[in-house]
Amino acid sequence: MLIIAGERYMITLFQHGEAEPPGFLEQILREQNLEYQIVRLYEGEVLPPVDRSPLIFLGGRMSVNDEADYPFLKGEKELIRRSIRSGAPVLGICLGAQLIASALGKAVYPGTPEKGWCGIDLIRSDLLPGCPDRAVVFHWHNETFDLPVGADLFAWGTQVPNQIFSYKSALAVQFHMEATPGIIADWTEELPQDERDRIRAETSRHLRGSEELCRRLLDHVLSGGA
Prior knowledge:
Number of helices: 5
Number of strands: 11
Structural class: alpha/beta
Helix content: 25-40%
Strand order of the largest sheet: 4-3-5-6-11-10-9-7-8
Shape: globular
Order of helices and strands: EEEHEEHEHEEEEEHH
Radius of gyration: 16 Å
Largest sheet: 9 strands, mixed
């Protein structure tokens, strides 16, 4: 269990597709003996009742605008708003980050596609002690979002500006900090061979730094730093 202000909480992760598992995040939670549950929305599991519990919204192949096809998206947005109002830690990754932006009233729309390893600049590295000012992280998305009013931008990219932002108790991360070699191999399977080979070589170079950033971002949000 995670202890926040003397209270014990279970962490809940929301998975939107079989191909978008928690990845490295699950390894960290196990290492730290933190109790968690995974709600597999793509299998028809319903949003559970939660009260100030930490929530993690993972990626997915749908758009946050596809509420007609995926009705659970509307419920997730309302859950995000309620959790932020209560001060509960909320972490969103890729689609999850876009869900946070949408829940806060901002548009999510097609942007410059980012697929593979790309650099970002951490402009609030002071809030993540020990992190470099620049990092290379794994992206796999076609949409982006406008920054919510009152949000604090942590990191930006040249092609897609809004990469990490915080809003009260929520932290939104556009890239895939949870990506493992297995996830990356699965997602890039249909790319041309030369692209797969390039991404595989870049994974060997950048994975360790990505995993360290993942640890720091997860610790930041679970400790109430968002």
